[in-house]
Write the structure tokens for this entry.
Amino acid sequence: CEILPTTEEIQKSLETLQSLRQRWDALHMQSQILPAAPTPPEAPRPFMGLSPEFAVSQAKNDYAAYKTYEKQHASKIDLLGIFGLVLGIGLAFIPNLYTRIGGIVLALASAIFGILQLSRKKTGTNKLHNLEEKYAPLDPDSWISAAAEFARAHNVYTQNLAGQNAQRTQFEQTLSALKQEIDQATQGASLSYQEQNYLQMLSKRGA
């Protein structure tokens, strides 16, 4: 015949379930106060979509290029080229054939040199304006520091996110282990059902 559990065994089983219930309720409350995921820092416009390391590297390279283009923009027309052009034109009107040819060559060379210099100056000016537009409204001298601040804020965010993920992983592991304990104690039934079952058994024994 079936061996029925004693009153003491039923009471002990009920106390085990009640203890599991308290732990379950405590974990449920803990899940309600878990911190929200940290918000990633907003990247300045020139660094959007970039990793912090690449943003710093880009800012340094762009600042170095900016200084180079700034020098090109500020450069003046080479007076030697102008002198060569004027001299060449003057020599081109001298009756001597070889002197005239030399003057024409000198004038052409000076003109080509001047055109190349103007083109280089214009290219530098355009690239200068492109970089200023890319980083607007930041001042050029703040490009690198802005990138470094973005990298610092992103690193803080990464550390906070890793800490929260570790906390959530630990919570989920604790919850999973508790579910296994409850399933073992209730033999797959719900916790509430098994508690009521033991209470009814105790009530009948008391009767």
